[in-house]
Amino acid sequence: MKHLFRSFLVVATLAFTFVIPPVASQAADVSVTAANFKPGSGALFHTGICGATVTAGQLIAISPSTGKFVLADANDVSLCKVIGISAHAAIDTQPLAVVYHADDCTLGATLSMTAPVYVCSATAGGIAPAADLSAGGLYPVVGIIAKSTTKCIVRFPAITGSAVTVTE
Description:
Elements: H1 2-19, E1 44-49, E2 59-62, E3 69-71, E4 84-86, E5 95-106, E6 117-120, E7 127-129, E8 144-146, E9 151-155, E10 165-167
Antiparallel strand pairs: 1-5, 1-10, 2-3, 2-4, 4-5, 5-9, 6-7, 6-8, 8-9
């Protein structure tokens, strides 16, 4: 009976959570210091041509019109598909390496251990806590999980295309 009651509480809590949207205000995006971003040993990268000005630590998507790497944006259905995090600064037409898999990435920001899941922000290139996802909004693939206040695991989906090569 005790187990049944606990199961009921879990189901009721989940139902309540998904039916009633949170009232609290959204948290601020993670503030990444580009100079402190380090992918870590064993990180895997996509390489391609940049289609915008980016700095290390910004989330990257592929422009459907140009095939170039641009800043990911959770407000744009074609740019919310994050492929990874920029490994360095670049401007339009320069080569860019994008981290899509890392087990020990130093993001260059202070991460929360109470809300350790991060997603694409509504600010182009930004990283936001998953708590910022809103009802009716776009739901980007989760790719960053905090291991500590300074280290994270990075996982983004594999991609293919003529403008992109994968370096392992």
